[in-house]
Amino acid sequence: MKSKVLGSTLIIAGTTIGAGMLALPIASAGIGFGTSLVLMFALWALMAYTALLMVELHQYADHSATLHTLAKQVLGKKGKYIASFAMLFLFYALCAAYIAGGGGQFADRLDMLFGIRLPGTVATLLFTVLVALTVTIGTHAVDKLNRVLFTLKLIAMSSVLFLLAPNVTQGYLMSMPVQQGLIVASIPVIFTSFGFHGSIPAIVNYLEGDTKALKKAIVIGSSLPLVIYIFWQIVTLGVVQQSTLIENSGLSNLIGLLAEAVHVEKLATIIGVFADLALVTSFLGVSLGLFEYLRDLGSKFTSKQNGTKQTAGLSFSQRAIAALVTFLPPLCFALFYPQGFIMALGYAAIALAVLAIFLPTIMVAKTRKQFTSETGYQVAGGHIALYSSMLIGVIIVGSQLLVTFKILPALG
Q1: How far is 81 from 220, CA to CA, in rounded Å?
Q2: d(Cα 42, Cα 360) in Å, to the nearest integer?
Q3: C-alpha neighbours within 13 Å on the C-beta side of residue 64
Q4: Angle at which helices 267-306 and 20-28 pack, to 10 degrees?
Q5: 11 near 203, Cβ under 8 Å?
Q6: How much is the pLDDT for 392?
Q7: Which residues contact 344 (CB under 8 A, 6 or more apart)?
Q8: Do the beta carbons of residue 246 and residue 31 sit within 8 Å?
Q9: Which terminus of the chain is more exposed, N or C, with fewer CB under 10 A?
Q10: Maximum CA pair distance of the chain?
């Protein structure tokens, strides 16, 4: 069981640490390190708390139950439809963010390594097609590729932290928010970088519903990204002056600024490779989840229409259609908004708030009323913690809507 707990802990940490990490310095540029640290601690605590709520919920269902199953069991069909819609919204928003960020990175890497200069649109299309082909081949191909890429990502991340750390300027870390509205505007992006709740049902099933093991995996697994994020914030916000970061927003500009600030040979390449790997590994995981979700919906719909049960795998044409539905909408967003990396992550926060905050808190509140005599595991905090989490969820969604309607300043 110990090896399973370790594996589950690493799955949670690996799911959390992705392309959202790249957005943290961009979202925090205008608010300073100290303020971003407070927000990161608060949002990490929130996400760890609601993840433990999911563990509490799984006590009253089979350990193989998915979020949709739990939502239907506790809230009925409406709950299931809300969970399904939020899941699709989250998947599409994240894919749009990764295509928008990855397309530009792919163009820069081709130019840097091979001297091939492609227009942004062509690079974005090629990047998306390569990922789409891998995902369409199947989970086995994604698994093999992801293992290699994830290992390389850890090596690149360690190298970046090691090379940047000696160049941190303490004065840069003491910067204060330049505008109060930026604090609120940064909340959705920072919140999204702590998302791992989609993997909880798989972890519950893997650990066979062992509450003690699940608590340990969630607390440690979610804490590791927090520690890494803190170091990442120190070496990014501490190396480049706040005003320079604000004036040169965007993922490509961030990489260029870090390379310019530290005179180390090939540092720009190492940082770029780390950014590429963070984007690709996140994109592969999310797009595979979306592809399989849509494929499953399509097969169920086809079976229902034909009055037969789907037993065989999908044909190539069916998989191609599923791939088209998976990648075309986010690709269109990225082509229309090539600088939409931060924007799409902000929209993802709305769906993530539904899946990771509103659904767990509402379901737990209802379940506790139904099973008042039960003596199973119950997350501490009572009604105050539940309602406080819901309130923070409203603030997160409201923040993104205020940014969308340009009442608050946009990031990146």
Answers
A1: 32
A2: 18
A3: 0
A4: 120
A5: yes
A6: 97
A7: 93, 94, 96, 97, 100, 330, 333, 337
A8: no
A9: N
A10: 69
| Per-residue tokens: 195 | 């998302």
Confidence of residue 312 (pLDDT cuts 50, 70, 90): very low
Q: Which residues, including other chains, have CB under 8 Å from residue 73's CB and lie 6 or more apart? A: 60, 61, 65
Give the residue-averaged pLDDT of 113-120.
86
Rounded alpha-carbon distances, angstroms, from residue 383 to 89, 206, 218, 371, 380: 29, 30, 22, 15, 9
End-to-end CA distance of the chain: 44
Model pLDDT for residues 140-151, shown as the tens digit of each residue: 778 788 878 888
| Burial of 308 from C-beta contacts in 10 A (0-12 / 13-18 / 19+) | exposed
Q: Kindly report the CA angle at 351 between 345 and 354, in degrees rounded to 5?
A: 140
Token pair 């066979």: residue: 208
Cβ of 260: how many Cβ atoms within 10 Å? Answer: 14
Q: Is the pLDDT of residue 309 over 80?
A: no
Radius of gyration of the chain (CA): 21
Does residue 7 or residue 128 have the better pLDDT?
128
The whole-angstrom distance between residue 309's C-alpha and the CA centroid of its chain comes to 34
- pTM confidence score: 0.90
| pLDDT at residue 46 in the model | 98
- What's the one-letter identity of residue 107? A
Q: What is the DSSP letter of 36?
A: H
User: Rounded to 5 degrees, what angle do the CA atoms 221, 224, 230 make?
Assistant: 150
* Total length of the chain: 412
Q: Which of 233, 202, 234 is nearest to 218 (CA)?
A: 202
Amino acid at 200: I
According to DSSP, residue 313 is labeled: P
Cα torsion through 290, 127, 139, 330, rounded to 10: 0
Token readout for 1 is 């069981």
Rounded to an integer, what distance in angstroms lies between the CA atom of residue 292 and that of residue 87? 12
